[in-house]
Each structure stands twice: as C-alpha cells, then as structure tokens.
Amino acid sequence: MYGALLNYEQNKQTITLHYEKQEAQIHVLTDSIINVFVPLFTSEHYSKAIEGDKELPTAFTLDKEQDALILATDSLVCKIYDDFMIDFYDKEGTLLCADYRGKRIPRKRFSESLIELAKQEGHTIDPNGGQDYAIQCIKQLDNADCIYGLGDKTGTLNKRCYEYENWNSDIPDPHEDSFKSLYKSIPFFITLKEKGVYGIFYDNTFKSYFNFGKENNGYYCFGSDDGNLDYYFIGGSSMPEIVTSYTYLTGRMPLPQKWTLGYQQSRWGYDSEKAFRELAAKFKEHHIPCDAFHFDIDYMDHYKVFTWNEERFTDARALLADLKEQGIKAVTIIDPGVKVEKGFTMYDEGVEHDYFAKSPDGNIYVNVVWPGDSVYPDFGNPEVRKWWGGHLQFYTDLGVSGVWNDMNEPASFHGPLPGDIVFTDEGKTATHAQMHNVYGHNMAKATYEGWKKLTNKRPFVITRACYSGSQKYATAWTGDNQSLWTHLRMAIPQQCNLGISGMTFIGTDIGGFGADTTPELLCRWVEAGCFSPLFRNHCAMGCMEQEPWLFGEETLAIYRKYVELRYALLPYFYDLCRECETTGLPIMRPLVLHYENDINVRNLNDEFMVGKHLLVAPVVEQGARKRMVYLPDGVWYDYWTHTEYKGGQYYIVDAPLDVCPIFVKEGTILPKAPAQMYVGEIEDPALILEVYPGTGSYTHYYDNGVDFAYQNGEYQEYFLETDGTKNLKITKRHEGYRDYPDIVIHYI
Ligand code: MIG
C-alpha cells in the first residue's frame, strides 16, 4: 500500500514521509509520545479526544541508515522502513513494538473441504475471519504480552486472545463475555511485556475493531471502517507512566464536588413527589447515609426533556428544596431525544435553528425513543451545545444538582440510525458513521460546559456513552447490568479497565439493574460497590424493588456497614480524585498497575486496589464464605482485624456474609472522616488518620469540595510521614483553605 520510502522532510517535530504510493507523518509530541498519522480521510490531523496542542518542545535525532530512518528521543527509538513499517524500541534498545510484516493468517474454523461443501450447497461462510479492515494496523505479539484497557468491555482484565469492536451500543440482553461492544468506545490499550510496557491510543471515531491475538497468537490488529490511520505510541517505564501520558493527551477527570462521592439511590419508577418523600423518610428511619436521589425518566412530562410532570410532582422546586434540607441532592436524567411536537420549546427552537440531525435528503431525521417520534440534537455543532447547555437553567432553577445523560450512544427503538445521517463535526458536515461514537461525548461536553456556566460549581454529569477524553466532562456508569453473579464478577475487570483508560469516575448499578436481586447478591454487591467511585444503587422498572431495607435485618445491617465504610473513607476517595486530576491514575486499579512484574497479578480478575494503599478482595461467588486472596509484595494488614500478612503469596481468608476482605499496605496513612448522614452534615469535620505499621508517606488534600476556588490556591495540602515509631510527622505543604478543627491519630 505504501511502497518504498522515497524521501522525507522535517518540519520542527513533524516528519513527513513520502512513500511511493502514500504520504504519512510521524509527529513527536513528547519524549515518550509519538504520533503516527496517515491522512486517509482528512489531510489535517483532527481529534475529538485531544483538546489543545499537546506538543512539548522535545529534542530528538533523525538519521537515515541503510534501510531505515531512525528517530530517537530521550526515551524512545522509532525505526521507520519501507511500506511504512515502524518498530519502537525503548532507550536501552529493547524492542517494544514491531509492525507485523505478513498478511493476516487467522486460526482456522473450518477445514477446506467443509468450506467447499458449503459453497456447493450455496452457502457462503466466512471461513476463518481475518478480513482486512479498511484502515488497519497489525503489530507483533510476544508470548508473554498481556493487553489491558480498551475502556468499557465485558470479559477479563487481560484482553489478550479476545476481540472487540468500538461502536457505542445499547443492547438490552445481559452483557456477556461474547459481547464485542458496550456503550463506550475508548480506543486505548496498554501492552505489558515480559520486560517493558507501552500504550497505543488509536484515535479513530469510526466503527473500529480490535483483535488482540485471537485470530493469531503472533500478532494483534486494530482498524476501522474509515477515517485516518492515526495512533499515538506511548512509551514509559511503568504502567502508571503510560496512564499518565495517555491522560496528558486526552485529559483527566477534574476534581468533583465532594458529595458526588457519597451514596446515591436510584430507581426507574420513582414516579411521584410522594415516592421521593417516602424514600427520604426511609433512609432516615434506617439510618443509611445518602447524598443523592436520581430522577429517572418518570419525572418528565411525556418523556419530554426539559419538562417536569406537574400532576405527579405538584411542586418540584419545593420537593427538591426539602430533600436538600435533609442533605439529599437531586440528579435528573436527560436523554438526547427530543419529542417531535409542535409547541414544545426544545423541538420548535431546534427546528427553527436547524439543530437536529438530518437525512441526506435534507429532512430532519426521526427515530423513536421514550417520547415516541424523536429527533437528535446535533451535539457536534458548538452552537447546539451552547443552546442545550443554556436550557439547563430549567434544572438549575428548580434546584437540581446533577445531570444524568442516558441513551446517548445514541440509542433508538426503530432500528439503528443509518450511517449516512448528516451530523456536524464542529464547522464541518459529517456523517453518523463518523460521529456515532462521539455523540455521547459531545452531549456530555455540552452538559458540563452549560452547567459550569450556570452554577460555577464543579458539574456533576453522568453519561452512559463515552469516547476517549470523556473523563474531562463526565462520570459514567456501566449501563444496564443485571442482578447476576456473573455481572458482579465482571464489574471488577470492567471498572479496572475503564480506570486505566482514563475514565476514573465510574460505577455499576449496585444490586443489578435488570432482573431481581437476592439478599446475598445485594450484600456482596454493596461490599464491592462501595469502592466504586460512583456509588449508586439503581434498578429497572418492573424488577423487584431493591432498596436496602426490603430484604430483612441482616441485609440492612450489612448494607449500612458498607455505606458507612464509604463515608468513613471519603477523605481517601477525595484524595484519589485529586491524584487523578494531577496524574490521571484511577481510583479503582487493577493490581497489575502497581505490581506489573508480578506474574500472579497479570490475570487477576477478582481483586482490585483502591489507590495504592487498599487492596479489596470482594466475594463474588454465591455461597462462598471464604475466598482465596493473592497479596503482592510487601506486608499487608487486614482492615477489620489488623492481622498481618506477608505478601507474595496466596491465602484463604474468612469472608462471612458481612465481611469484604480488605487489606492495607504497610506504612499506610489512611485519612478518614467522622460518621455523617451526608457530606457536609458536619460543617467542619475533624480528620482521622489511621497509621499502619511500617514506613510511608502520604499527601492529603482538603478544600471546600464544591467550586473552583481551589484552582486559585484555596486548598490545604498536608504531607504526612510515618517511620513506624508512632510519631506521625505532619507538614503543611500548601495553605489556602482552612485547617481541620482537630486531627485524630490512630496507630494500628
Ligand atoms: O431504555 O431511563 O441505562 O439506567 O433507568 C432504557 C430508563 C432507558 C436505560 C438506562 C437506565 C435507565 C433507563 N434507561
């Protein structure tokens, strides 16, 4: 396709390569990030994920050797050959990633004679897979290579030997390992080698494919139906460095409001003022902390967005104010689909200003979602984002505190939107095929920006559909799971992979959305789910109600215990948010992120870390009252009993129904909060520091938890050090907010 490299020219940090049949570019962004670009769709480089210029002045050398052009930064060496074959090495000269030189050779599914037979009988069977994609890149795989990331996918933590697709999909069936795509498309993955690690961000919004050595153990490939070949090779000395570089490119979760880390209750079917008032009373009665109620589509008038049903909610403003009195904030669902109805403001305005997606014939495109016949705001158009964002005032005026964007894949009930539906990509005309995977991203951006402008607080936006970079605008949940043990199990690798793919603020529907939960499943789900950054119980209309008090005293007590644990750990979660904003490292982490050289954690699907200090090994098997736990290197302490464990081995630990095994790393200084029924119940709470044996240090961050004042320095930062002698040293590193009224230290 490319032919021989004829010549090249260098313009600052961009090298344009003239091949016989095609032009290509290599762009040095930083020491460890190199972009590979072939202008097959647009001549200019463009991205929905990367905002702003990420190029840093970087010194590199460029030398022509016999058969290769050799580009070397301080940390990467990139050898470029004929046919645009590229190999990447680290600075020690170890090969990290080589282009695969052959054709795709899929593992066989059918023998030649069977294929022949099928042909004779008039069937066409796809004999062995392995068809080339229109846009494609194939890289060699070594036997030990493991692959992580790719955002929101079903299945195992390590994606080696599996294949996936990126096409944001709302599929109502129970999510299974065989699903190739879910609601989000995040084309980023990390390859961990026996020695060395690298990441690839394949920035293409069209329907994309990833085959990670499933069709052939010797290579993996990624590609798309259209677009440019445009990927970023990310080098680094460890997995965290790769994540930091990837989030340097695509952005990081901004610090959220603190209450958004509290417990949240939802159900599709809370359909009246009465339902919400009763719900609040129940939380009080059962003494379960709670920070937010979610208002699903039932609050609207005929599912029309930006409306509120006045029959079932006689006074929404008063309801929301009363709830807020009790510490409970309201989060409302807002779907993209706008009901076709003359006289409905959103519809009329959108038609008037040409804000909806159109068929190629120029008519507004109509499909069906909850309101019936509906049209799709064209969020790729900045004017549409502004319009939509401005209308959010309807909600802020009523006292709503957060927005939950659903159905933004975009979903449709009357068949999928055709690929040629006309959308906008900023100033340019674009197709649905190009914009589908960024529809939710653009909607979240509209919501975030609009909300920020209206409130001047850190917006709380939840989205179901995402693309790379959506973490800058939104929190996400994993969509419609079901009350199944397999889904509780899957939630761990799913969230860990989302986390290392930049989406830190994520959660699953606790208890399961579809199907009916059981007391035991709900207990085990809250035990694991209280460590998800987004901590929400949500359940579908028509499924058995799953508020925690409906399953008897034992379940209620266990549920309360873990919601309380979450509230105790809020300062730790908040610190992790701060860390994420500065480094991109997620809150929930696979063990492999910190122990990448430990072969025992490379395929560990049922444990995770929360930050660097906590290791959580939830029970995800029905009936299990003990479980096997692998503890990596170091000394660990059982959170509940303080029993000491030496790492680097497996243990069988007790896990009665009320116990989620949690381990704390030696030298940990764990910041905790006094019990509260909601964030802010205690106006000026003390800080509790739990100091574990061993030496260690910790940075603790504290601010008002609400607005952007911290960006002007209004925060405190404490540096804490322990040397194991029960003499915790506290140094103030930054002073711009206020001190705690009290710091209570517990030595373990
Ligand atoms: O077609 O708004 O994932 O959380 O409760 C279903 C109703 C639409 C799907 C969301 C779910 C929500 C539900 N929605």
Explain this structure to me?
The chain has 748 residues and is of the alpha+beta class. Helices cover 20% and strands 28% of the residues. The protein is built from 13 helices and 47 strands. The protein has a nine-stranded parallel beta sheet. The chain has an eight-stranded antiparallel beta sheet with strand order 1-2-3-4-18-15-14-11. Helix 10 (485-500) links the parallel strand 30 (475-477) and strand 31 (506-507). Helix 6 packs across helix 9. It is globular, with a radius of gyration of 26 Å. Ligand MIG is lined by residues 268, 296-297, 333, 406-407, 464, 479-480, 513, 538. Ligand MIG binds at residues 268, 296-297, 333, 406-407, 464, 479-480, 513, 538.
Main sheet overview: 9 strands, parallel
Helix/strand class: alpha+beta
Provide the spatial order of strands within the biggest beta sheet.
31-30-28-25-21-20-19-33-32
Output mean pLDDT: 97
Radius of gyration: 26 Å
Coarse morphology: globular
Ligands bound, unique: ligand MIG
Query: What is the β-strand count?
Result: 47
- Low-confidence segments: none
Q: What count of helical segments does DSSP give? A: 13
Helix content: 10-25%
Give the N-terminus to C-terminus distance in angstroms: 64 Å
Which percent range describes the beta-strand content? 25-35%
